[in-house]
Task: structure prediction
Amino acid sequence: DSPENASLRTPIVAVLGHVDHGKTSLLDQIRGSAVIEGEAGAITQHIGATAVPLDVISAIAGDLVDPDDFDLPGLLFIDTPGHHSFTTLRSRGGNLADIAILVVDVNDGFQPQTIEALDILQRSQTPFIVAANKIDTVPGWNPTDDAPIKPTYENQSDRVRGDLDERLYEIIGELSDEGFSADLYWRVQHFQRNIGVVPVSAMTGEGVPDLLTVMMGLSQRYMREEMEIDVAGPGVGTVLEVKEEKGFGATVDIVLYDGTIRTDDTIVVGGTTEPIVTDVRALLQPRPLAEIRTESRFERVEQVDAAAGIKVAAPDLADAMAGAPVRVVRDRDRDDVIEEVEAE
Ligand code: GTP
Ligand code: MG
Result:
């Protein structure tokens, strides 16, 4: 990486949508691992974070993404649960995100949590695209694994194409009913004004190259200035989960969205009664393509740069609160940082 790249942080991408519409499967397809197999009841109960480096994205996207066109280091995906009882987790994910993917099952169309997710994205002013998922379930679908949408679409019979078109236009209509102007992504010029709809299958991987290409393009085009942050500054993040970890006691899984965190740092973490001031004992990083939620073999690292999902081991974290802020003190006044955490 050139020194210029070093100042660009990884965009955070939230994956939102109604229960069972395929959010985890989509990330699973991208990750090429079997996280979904390990999920209790196949319902995502917790937010997880998955870092996908640029070279992996470009390997999946093939001809659609030339790594030389991009200077972002990759994408950090945050999975969220679609079940109606997890509104807080969804808004936490939505508020953290720089950009988002709204997953909609082409058979099921808009459902209550689809609309709730749209509200979260609108309120947080988060640019997003729609993944119209499960295109492989259109009766008579002739799949080509991992293919971009165009060749696979042309490979279908007229009837199948017509059937898919009908479902896609229904989704575009539903977006319009919610006040969003939308179209199929290849017809969209300004992704800020119009929502791009990308037909995909999390099962066959069809359309996934397109989805990653559009996400990279969207972040590169509209997020670049926001990505050029002071990555060397003291870290700022949000607690996703507080977890007991063998040999470490209570730990926090955080998403770091600004600056750095190091093993010798003092941090302030929002707690259930008051801010917790503690010293980082270990930073435990899942391997690049693993998911923080299910990865058990962590790698100890000395420093992490935003954006990243990282597990922090430190004394006194038992009363840390999910959704609370985390701030690195470094060479600032400790009381100022405590005040910042209290004010958030
Ligand atoms: P929650 O986390 O509970 O909100 O669900 P989710 O959106 O993460 O859905 P998940 O990925 O768990 O998928 C739900 C079901 O749909 C699973 O049985 C998947 O195998 C299936 N599924 C997901 N994507 C596709 C797809 O593209 N095609 C087909 N045929 N099935 C899919
Ligand atoms: Mg899920």
